[in-house]
Design a protein that fits this description.
The chain has helices at 8-20, 25-40, 49-54, 78-91, and strands spanning 101-106, 122-128, 131-136. By secondary structure, it is an alpha+beta fold. The chain has a domain at 8-97: Arc Repressor Mutant, subunit A (Orthogonal Bundle), CATH 1.10.10. The chain has a 3-stranded antiparallel sheet with strand order 1-3-2.
Length: 137
């Protein structure tokens, strides 16, 4: 597998970078918190960072058909440095800023939100940056 040599923290940093590299530190950290919330409350999506992040169809930037799936940060990429800092904070247990969110989607999808967002299984918890975050109901 392409990610075998990644530690959990490095895989988390890559996920944050791919999913939220255009966001502020707060937005990147929130994405990381939502991933940690999945790890801390295991369900069908996995029981650790690796299984949560690499579970098919959970994070679009890891889907084979997504243009971000083949993107990797270049040396000196400030957005990646920030993603690494966020990943370290998440793994170290810094307080969650998402009110328990386990999912999110980009506000650019507001006209056609993902189907799961209207499920009674989820409730909107907070907006941070370009993302709507959702916790389990």
């Amino acid at each position: 597998m392409a990610y075998d040599n990644y530690s959990d923290q490095d895989l988390l940093a890559l996920c944050i970078w791919r999913e939220a590299r255009g966001e502020t530190h707060a937005g990147k950290f929130a994405v990381g918190c939502s991933i940690r919330n999945r790890v801390q409350h295991p369900r069908w999506w996995g029981r650790d960072y690796r299984s949560v992040i690499l579970d098919p169809w959970q994070y679009s930037s890891f889907n084979a058909n997504d243009p971000n799936a083949n993107k990797y940060p270049q040396p000196g990429d400030a957005a990646y440095d920030d993603a690494e800092a966020c990943a370290q904070s998440v793994v170290n247990g810094d307080p969650d800023t998402t009110a328990g969110a386990v999912s999110y989607y980009d506000k650019s999808l507001d006209a056609h939100p993902p189907q799961w967002a209207s499920s009674p299984q989820f409730k909107h918890s907070i907006d941070i940056g370009a993302f709507h975050f959702f916790a389990l109901s």
